[in-house]
Fold this sequence. Notes:
The protein is of the alpha+beta class. It has helices spanning 46-65, 99-104, 109-128, 177-182, 187-208, 214-217, 235-244, 256-264, 330-341; strands at residues 2-3, 9-17, 20-27, 31-39, 74-79, 85-91, 141-143, 149-151, 165-167, 184-186, 273-277, 280-287, 290-300, 303-312, 319-323. The protein has 3 domains: 2-91, Phosphorylase Kinase, domain 1 (2-Layer Sandwich); 99-264, Transferase(Phosphotransferase) domain 1 (Transferase(Phosphotransferase), domain 1), CATH 1.10.510.10; 279-341, no CATH class. 32% of the residues lie in helices and 27% in strands. Strands 1-5-6-4-3-2 form a 6-stranded mixed sheet, covered by helices on one side. Strands 11-12-13-14-15 form a 5-stranded antiparallel sheet.
Amino acid sequence: MNNHVSNLVIGDHIGSGHFGDVHAAVDQVHGDVAVKIISKKDDQSDADWDAAKAEFLREARHLAAAEHPNVVPVYHLGESLDGKSIRYCMKLCAGGSLQSQYEAGPMRLSDVRKVGNEVLLGLSNLHARGMIHRDIKPGNILIDENGVARLGDFGLVTDELLHGYAIGAGYRDHLAFEYWELGITSAKSDIWALGMTLYRLLHGHEWYLESQLPRMVIADGDFRDKLKWLPHIPQRWRRTIRAMMHDDTDLRTQNVAQVQAAFAGLPTEPDWECEVGGQQVRWRRQQGGRVIRVEWNRNSLRRHDWRAWSEPIGPGRTRNLGGSNGQVGSQVAIRALETFLRT
């Protein structure tokens, strides 16, 4: 990473991260790029500004040191001539972050497994360099022009470890039990946060909001047992994510290599498209020349109904594939849907 002020043309604001705002820009060497900028505030003392700059520079240097195909690369770092702003130029990931996909709804199993495998490669590189990320979440996973997932926003990355632990920091819904108990994080805390990230990507924002905010209940213990699963998520996925989120760090999945081994066997079929809208959940997938659809209505605890059918692609008849035949209790509906959606 070179330290200089380049001839950047700053464009639209595209996001915010720790210590600064991110803008699209054009660089004379690299073309379209992203630039993270921190500026001195009018009421900021010189001492506070120097401290803020030091943190920002530390973030940029951590990101540059973690050079890897699954980490957002930094091209150069510079300070304005008047000393009132500092910026670093990095790769513009054309696909944006996974925050937008998470907010749109559940991602398919195949897409989440691909993202998970790619993030694990970047995280393995980070941990091998003695650093922990401390802020893994959908908004910090970026998709490049080739559809490859890259870890970004290194504002909370640290290599200041004592016996493998660091001071706790990060998005509060993604802080593992040890943070709430002892105020610390470690590489195993990154594993927990990745497990939570995968859970969120599989379920989408609307389903996630139906549960209590994790920050309110993680400290009570056994949070992984409180996760509410969509019926189509296979048991192997559930076991893998639960193992990543164990309260006891000795019983939690120990490292990235173990998660990668577990991921190698995760099923992606049937690979449903899922949509959550209010009290209704819908699934869709294509099989041969037909489209299979499932609709689940969750009217109240005791008033659920569901139905499944297939439609031809082109001429043909719609076929009934099953359903609840009226209203049933929630657990009856969920068990029947789990059976249907996983076969």
